[in-house]
Amino acid sequence: RIIYQNRAGIGSLHSGGKIPLGLQRKGLRILVTGGAGFVGSHLVDRLIARGDSVIVVDNFFTGRKENVMHHFGNPRFELIRHDVVEPLLVEVDQIYHLACPASPVHYKHNPVKTIKTNVVGTLNMLGLAKRVGARFLLTSTSEVYGDPLEHPQKETYWGNVNPIGVRSCYDEGKRTAETLTMDYHRGAGVEVRIARIFNTYGPRMCIDDGRVVSNFVAQALRKEPLTVYGDGKQTRSFQFVSDLVEGLMRLMEGEHVGPFNLGNPGEFTMLELAGVVQETIDPNAQIEFRPNTADDPHKRKPDISKAKELLGWEPKVPLRKGLPMMVQDFRQRIFGDHKEDSS
Ligand code: NAD
Ligand code: UDP
Ligand code: UDP
Q1: Which of 53, 111, 252, 322 has the highest count of CB atoms within 10 angstroms of its CB?
Q2: Rounded to whole angstroms, what are the CA distances from 338 to 223, 224, 326, 331?
Q3: Mean pLDDT (whole number) for 271-276
């Protein structure tokens, strides 16, 4: 049974009462960088529920206090305003390193800052992991595959990335972050884990972050046309956030370094996605075509055989089940808690 909690928490979608082996209460001290963001805040909810003590470090570039304020007052929760580009001294057992803007609109806003966050920020968190002997998990991205020439993408594929394009600050930044992670592992014996995350959606995404799912949902709710970039035939594979959080925790607790693809293999063109949004919110929503952005990958779909085999993980929430949970959250945030949209 899906239990949908207040404050857009994803609740016990996965545990269903039974907590998988390895994810049981441990009382660890865990640092989550970027923990006030979309993915980070859902991860924090699961860690707190498991009984861990969590320190969130966030500079609030794209994160919001509202995403974690339901933990204020809990002695096992601490929120620190801090930029990971600066050194950090804390004592923890595990580090989930998520700090980095994820939406193309946000990461292109200040590309040099995005590179510093990915390179200097990751270096600092690895230095911290080395000093305190913590296990370190990097949230890398499917963008390391660039505009892929292999489809679907396996972890063994090295990618097709433009090093001098407008997306490079993010995809080359994450590629360097992966390199640093492996070099601290090989050179300094730091225990590391690498996740390559594919497009993820769900409650608490920034409403106007420019990503396609948040754009379409907000547009349909506001009775604006859905903006399809290019011809709309490019594809993405959309994962609900609770599936990702489950995968990240299994990866952290498991024995394997990775990299592991974490994504939902269900592949949709942007026009098909617009169709699902119409079905879910408003069958009369119009579609408006806009020019596409530079270096936009034509297709993207994870091969998740490795995560299935070694982590026993696969996504459980298809787009048509996950989207309504996000719509409920967006509706509340756009129109206010009690006001219903007229549709
Ligand atoms: P998000 O923008 O909601 O969260 C990122 C968080 O990091 C925000 O709270 C932001 O304020 C914080 N942050 C950014 N720069 C920082 C800095 N220099 N110091 C401290 N905090 C900083 O994005 P998200 O979707 O939650 O993504 C989380 C992680 O997952 C990112 O590393 C992203 O690259 C990765 N990822 C996400 C997706 C996705 O579809 N959501 C896909 C691939 C990879
Ligand atoms: N660092 C940090 N917190 C720590 C330990 C290190 O932020 O607890 C930073 C440190 O400031 C440095 C980076 O991590 O910039 C890499 O540290 P490391 O010890 O690996 O390298 P070094 O300091 O010798 O260059
Ligand atoms: N896109 C779109 N309309 C929008 C926003 C994005 O058609 O309003 C397209 C975009 O061109 C890309 C895909 O949707 O092909 C996914 O974009 P997003 O920014 O969500 O994530 P990406 O996978 O590119 O990082």
Answers
A1: 322
A2: 19, 22, 16, 10
A3: 97
User: What is the enclosing helix (H) or strand (E) of 31?
Assistant: strand 29-33
Residues enclosing ligand 2, CB less than 6 A?
A: 87-89, 123-124, 127-128, 130-131
Cβ count within 10 A of residue 66: 13
**Res 18: pLDDT:** 54
Q: Could you tell me if the ipTM is greater than 0.85?
A: yes
Q: Whose CA is nearest to atom 12 of ligand 1?
A: 34
Write down the pLDDT at residue 174. Answer: 98
User: What pTM does this model have?
Assistant: 0.93
Looking at residue 294, its pLDDT comes to 85
Asked if residue 39 has pLDDT above 90, the reply is yes
Return the ligand 1 atom nearest residue 200 CA: 40
Ligand positioned closest to the Cα atom of 59: 1
User: What pLDDT, on the 0 to 100 scale, is given for residue 293?
Assistant: 87
**Ligand 3 site: residues with CB under 6 angstroms?**
104, 199, 210-212, 215, 227-229, 234, 236, 270, 292-293, 296
Residue 230 tokens read as 């290019």
Indicate which residue of 170, 184, 201, 229 is catalytic: 170
Residue 2 has pLDDT above 50, yes or no: no
CA distance 142 to 123: 21
Residue 75 to residues 10, 60, 64, Cα–Cα distance (Å)? 22, 22, 20
Say whether 266 sits in a helix, a strand or coil. Answer: coil
Q: How far apart are the first and last CA of the chain?
A: 27
Q: Judge whether 145 counts as a catalytic residue.
A: no
Phi-psi region of 270 (alpha: psi -120 to 50; beta: other; left: phi over 0): alpha
